[in-house]
Write a structure and sequence with these properties.
By secondary structure, this protein is α/β, with parallel strands linked by helices. Helices cover about 45% and strands about 15% of the residues. A 3-stranded parallel beta sheet has the order 1-2-3, with helices on both faces. Strand 2, helix 3 and strand 3 form a beta-alpha-beta unit. Helix 1 runs parallel beside helix 2. It starts with 5 loop residues before the first helix and ends with a helix.
Length: about 90
Amino acid sequence: MNVADGNEALSLFKQHRPDWVLMDWEMPKQDGLTAIRAIIAEFPKANICMVTAFNEAELRDEAFAAGAIGFVAKSNLFELETILARN
């Protein structure tokens, strides 16, 4: 399921409670980091992996601090299989 922005991500998470969320960083209205924080605040055991075109260490650190349990650069999506398999 695709969402238009971070606000919609929280709303749909509440409705569907998916096993995994693949969250982009750059979205309109609310960015992925803010959306991760909002989901984790209500659902601390949510499995969220940030999947983004940006691969800076600072963004990676912020994603983990927000509650993501994985971070994958879109240029290396093969890492996603490992992250999904271990949780």
